[in-house]
Amino acid sequence: MSTAQLTRPVPRAAGTGKRQAARTGANVARYAAVTLVALLFLLPFYIMVKTAVSPAADIASRTFVLWPSDPDWSSFSRVLDDPTFPRAMLNTAVMAVVLTGGQIVLAAMAGYAMARIPNRAAGPLFSATIVVLLIPAATTFLPNFLIVAKLGWVDSLRGLVIPGLFSAFNVFLFRQFFLNFPKELEEAGRLDGLGYFGVFRRIVVPNTLAFASALTVLGFVGSWNAFLWPLVVAGGGSGAVTVQVYLSSFLTAQTFDYSGLFAAALLSLVPVLLVFLVLQRWLVRGVAETGMGGG
User: Which of helix, strand or coil describes residue 96?
Assistant: First the structure.
């Protein structure tokens, strides 16, 4: 065989070039669509940053300005110098961490008891949980506040956290999750001499971290953004003021401090973003496992 025959390029099959071009075009269109959606999601953050550094004249102007010619970053230092802001951030962090952790722990134990431990109360308790889910949250504000006021927990972290430790929604999700949990793993633990609590602590909990992490992210974001209950319990004082109640102080009947409001809102997003970045892998895995597990 000659050298020319050895170096001659092998002809490609007919249609391969067209298929590759079509595949490339589809990938370009897909990435373009994803980029467009990402820009749409980032648009509110751009507006927040732009408003936080814009002078009052640019904010009130009817003419749209892509970016202020002379950005004013003093609103961030003004918020950080306010002693109420770090106190509100600390109160919100404590409330969100304790509330979310308590909800996950109590819901996991209650859901496991309803799904796996044979007892006559499991059915009625699950029915009561469903009934609680059907009750509008606004109707429980007055009874809860009366109880909190009677116990002397107004304007305190106890009043913010303890009434919300039970989450009927999380109990329902955990029960449904444990109904699909492999019984073989639990039976192996019982053969090793473990009781219900031992099986739950040593076998079930380690295999539930992904699902629990997904609920943790959702619960933390919800607790961090809570406004109505903290306003009712701690809105009248500064001892247990949360960051959402603090943000509402920038808008009063006399003044509208939009630059300070958006600067404080941006700073308050940092802890939520950190929690999301840390638990992002677990969140995706938990949602995927929940979807594959069925109802």
Answer: helix
Q: Which helix (H) or strand (E) holds 235?
A: none
CA distances from 227 to 166, 232, 289 (A): 18, 9, 32
User: What's the DSSP call for residue 256?
Assistant: B
C-alpha of 160 from chain center: 18
DSSP states of 8-76: SPPPPPTTHHHHHHHHHHHHHHHHHHHHHHHHHHHHHHHHHHHHHTS-HHHHH-SS--SS-SS--THHH
Rg value, the chain, Cα: 27
Number of H-type helices and E-type strands within the chain: 15, 0
CA angle 188, 190, 196 (to 5 degrees): 125
Q: Is the pTM of this model over 0.85?
A: no
In the beta sheet, which residues pair with residue 256?
A: 251
Determine the Cα angle at 123 with ends 118 and 127, to 5°.
Answer: 155
- Give per-residue pLDDT as tens, 147-191: 999 999 998 999 999 999 999 999 999 999 999 888 888 888 888
Angle between helices 209-224 and 258-293 (to 10 degrees): 160
Tokens at residue 178, please? 């444990």
Q: Token pair of 269, please? A: 């997003």
